[in-house]
Amino acid sequence: RHMKRRHVIGGLVVLLLGYLVLFGVRTTRIESLQSAVSQSIHAGMSSDQVRGLLATRHLDPSPLIRPEVMVYGRHDYSNQNVVVSVKRNTWRSLLSSEAVYLIFVFDDEDKLVRWDIFPIYTGL
User: Fold this and answer.
1) Predicted confidence band at 33 (pLDDT cuts at 50, 70, 90)?
2) How far is the C-alpha of 80 from the C-alpha of 71, rounded, in Å?
3) Residue 2, C-beta contacts closer than 8 angstroms, at least 6 positions apart
């Protein structure tokens, strides 16, 4: 009786570990980040204001940069004034992980023009 119970529990543990290896654990939803950012960050804000708000949310923003070449997926930020913020490990499995990138684009007068949010996957 106890052996049968141990086998059932052992089987459930193996299934759970297999699920976590394949499907992983999500710690942050992109929609949640998008909602939080859209409520506090608006067009026309300065890069210092945006960086300050990102820092209060522990999103570790970069300084204002103007990269010669910067492309993420289908997004091209080359020769634009941008602040980059990355929320790492928003989803992890044993085989791969996800980071959410937030890119804020500013005009030449340091006013926020737009922002993009998208996942980047690494691993297998």
Assistant:
1) confident
2) 11
3) none
The DSSP output letter for 82 is: E
Statement: the pTM of the whole predicted model exceeds 0.70: yes
| Amino acid (1-letter code) at residue 95 | L
Measured between alpha carbons, how far apart are the two ends of the chain, in Å? Answer: 42
Q: Which helix (H) or strand (E) holds 91?
A: strand 81-92
Q: What is the pLDDT of residues 64-121, one digit of tens each?
A: 999 999 998 788 999 999 999 988 877 767 777 878 899 999 999 999 999 999 888 8
Question: Which position has the higher pLDDT, 95 or 59?
Answer: 59
How many Cβ atoms from other residues are within 10 Å of residue 56's Cβ? 9
18-26 long-range contacts, Cβ below 8 Å, gap at least 24?
A: 20/93, 20/94, 21/93, 21/94, 21/95, 22/93, 22/95, 23/93, 24/91, 24/92, 24/93, 24/94, 24/96, 24/97, 25/91, 25/92, 25/93, 26/90, 26/91
Which residues face 86 on adjacent strands? Answer: 101
